[in-house]
Amino acid sequence: MHKNESPQILTLILFLTDPLHPTILLFLENKNP
């Protein structure tokens, strides 16, 4: 099941489009162990 890659890519796109959003950074940190 590679469904975890889909949201990760989406988060990356969001982070690239809106790097001024610290919420995305927190989300990424929460996803990573």
Structure described in brief:
It contains two helices and no strands. It has 33 residues and is mainly α.
Show unreliable segments: none
Whole-number average pLDDT?
70
Helix content bin: 55-70%
Instruction: Write down how many β-strands occur, each being a DSSP E stretch of 2 or more residues.
Output: 0
Query: What is the terminal separation in angstroms?
Result: 18 Å
- What is the beta-strand fraction? under 5%
Figure out the total of helices: 2
Could you describe the largest sheet, including whether it forms a barrel? none
Helix and strand content put the structural class at mainly alpha
Quick one: overall form?
flat
H-E order? HH
C-alpha Rg (nearest Å): 10 Å
Show the helix and strand layout.
Layout: H1 5-17, H2 22-31
Helix pairs in contact: 1-2
Would you mind describing this structure in some detail?
By secondary structure, the chain is mostly helical. Helix 1 (5-17) runs antiparallel to helix 2. The mean pLDDT is 70. The chain contains 2 helices and no strands. The chain is flat and about 25 Å long.
